[in-house]
Design a protein that fits this description.
The chain is mainly beta. 3% of the residues lie in helices and 36% in strands. The chain is globular and about 45 Å long. The N and C termini lie far apart (37 Å).
Length: 296
């Protein structure tokens, strides 16, 4: 991988853990043996409340012996170091991670997480064309989502509490993000050295934004790369660069048919946008991207 996250090695050389079931939690809220949650959580924890993860699991390379959809019953948090979640070797048709319902946040890479690779997976939300009438689809005027269906999130300050440990050295590569209404890979809070490469976003309302929390204090992000990704048939944020970011590269991406879900509304959506809120971002490079709008 290239970009600011190019030095990320994840769990390479670490203990290999096999996911052997698509199940998540049992009826008591305990991770089921062989599940993805059990693979990345310290024994006795469920990785839901990141604030309570005082001894997060580290040093694992997670692979999948099963294919299909993992329904996450609750948020799944990572705060450890040297972790790879690798969907490349899964049997056909691969592994999809889906929140149990549209009010659940999916995978969260939280404060203190370091040297993380997530690759070869699909992250699916609950917002899709089924929410639109046939007439709406013809003119690309689907209703805005009524929820905030977050499938994956990098959050270096989840609780808006000052933390001296950022989320850093992170790569999301060769993943698919679809049908999410909000946060299909957002980057929040205190985050450093991240690469998003070779990913495919499609049919997402709000794709991905690098932003601060609305709470105080305002924490910044530095070293964010969007390299060789495809954004297709979504509304906006391809990506969004919102205030207090330093050194952001948006390079060699394809952005196709933004404003797809609300093409006739007064606010038609946007592709890549940079805005200061409350402070301007510095050192943003937007280079050699291809933008194609089918809006008419």
């Amino acid at each position: 991988y290239e970009g600011f996250g190019s030095q990320t090695t994840g769990g390479s050389g670490q203990r290999v853990v096999h996911v052997t079931t698509l199940e998540d939690l049992d009826t008591t809220g305990t991770p089921i043996p062989g599940s993805l949650r059990a693979a990345v959580c310290t024994a006795g924890q469920d990785c839901y409340d990141l604030e309570l993860m005082t001894t997060p699991l580290s040093n694992v390379y997670v692979v999948f012996d099963v294919a299909g959809t993992i329904h996450l019953d609750t948020r799944l948090g990572l705060r450890g170091s040297n972790i790879t979640i690798d969907g490349f070797g899964a049997p056909s048709p691969g592994v999809t991670i889906l929140n149990r319902n549209d009010q659940t946040t999916g995978l969260v890479i939280g404060e203190g997480a370091r040297n993380i690779v997530v690759q070869g997976l699909s992250f699916k939300g609950h917002y899709d064309e089924a929410d639109c009438s046939a007439a709406d689809l013809v003119i690309h005027n689907c209703p805005p989502p009524s929820n905030y269906d977050k499938t994956i999130l990098i959050d270096g300050d989840l609780y808006a509490v000052p933390d001296t440990s950022p989320a850093e050295q992170i790569v999301l590569g060769y993943n698919t993000f679809l049908n999410s209404s909000d946060s299909a890979g957002d980057i929040w809070g205190n985050v450093r050295n991240v690469t998003y490469a070779y990913n495919f976003w499609h049919h997402v309302f709000d794709a991905v934004v690098a932003s601060h929390h609305s709470d105080t204090p305002i924490l910044s992000r530095t070293g964010i790369s969007f390299d060789k990704n495809v954004f297709a048939k979504l509304t906006q944020r391809t990506p969004g660069i919102r205030g207090d970011n330093t050194d952001v590269d948006v390079v060699n991406n394809i952005v196709y048919e933004w404003a797809f879900f609300n093409g006739t509304l007064p606010s038609v959506g946007y592709a890549t946008i940079i805005n200061g809120d409350p402070n301007d971002s510095q050192g943003v490079n937007i280079i050699n991207n291809y933008y194609h709008s089918d809006y008419r």
